[in-house]
Structures are given as C-alpha cells and as structure tokens.
Amino acid sequence: MNIKNIENSIIEKLKADFPEILVIGFPDKPSEFILLHQIGALLVHYQGGNYSNTQALSYITQDAQKEFSITIVTRNLRGNAGAYDYLDKVKASLSGFKIDECSLLYPVKDFFISENAGIWQYGINFSLKTQNIQIY
User: What would the mean pLDDT of 75-97 be, rounded to a whole number?
Assistant: First the structure.
C-alpha cells in the first residue's frame, strides 16, 4: 500500500470520528496555514519509515515500518476540545485501526510542538507495518 493511500485512510477515519473539527492532510506550505476553524484542526502527514533486511536471494521482499503523524491544533490546552482532550481522543480513534494490506495502527509517541497566541500544537505518531516487494 502506498503512502498517499494510507494517509487518506487515516484522514477518512478521523473525519468520520471527528466531524466537529477540520481534518486534512498537512498543508504543502505549513507556514501559511492559519487556523480559521472555531475548534481546531487535525493535520495528517507521513513521518518516515524503516525497512527490514530482505531474506530472499533473487528478489526483494521486506517489511516496511511506516510512521504517520497527526498534528493537533487547538485554541486551548486543558479545556473541553483542548489539545489534551484531542490527544486522548485521536489515540483512542486510531489505536487498532486496520488499513488494507497493513498491520493495525498503534501509537508510538506524542509530543508538544508549539504555542503561539493561544493556539496550541501537539503531535501524536502512529506506526504500522506493510510490505515492500520488488516489481518485476
């Protein structure tokens, strides 16, 4: 499964679970992103991956461990619909989520990103395993 399809599956799951908030792929120009939504946003992007060694002699087949990050952007930290609230809700929503041709998603870390004029940003990363197989 390719990166874009996995990312889109995560976005659709979050949109279904969080209709009250903006859910989109991470902007191409993050410095130009302005939070206009009254509650906040969930921004999804691919963080990177690692690949196992191949055991085959005549072709390449590997496990690919891929990590995706959800940036939570909110107008408060501790209150209802705040960053802490959405960290817990996103973790619950995506833990164990199954995407075709991939293992179950699981959280690997969450972290503070920034605060600017009362706009809080936290990240939570999830990992899954898929296959990298040589195309003949």
Answer: 95
Sequence-ordered list of residues with C-beta below 8 angstroms from that of 77, at least 6 positions apart, any chain: 83, 84, 115, 120
pLDDT of 80 strictly over 90 = no
Is pTM beyond 0.85 here? yes
Alpha-carbon distance 120 to 136, whole Å? 47
At 59, list the tokens.
């072709």
CA dist 75 and 82 (Å) reads: 7
Ramachandran quadrant class, 78 (left: phi over 0; alpha: psi -120 to 50; beta: rest): alpha
Pull the structure tokens for residue 7.
Answer: 């990312």
DSSP structural state of residue 19: T
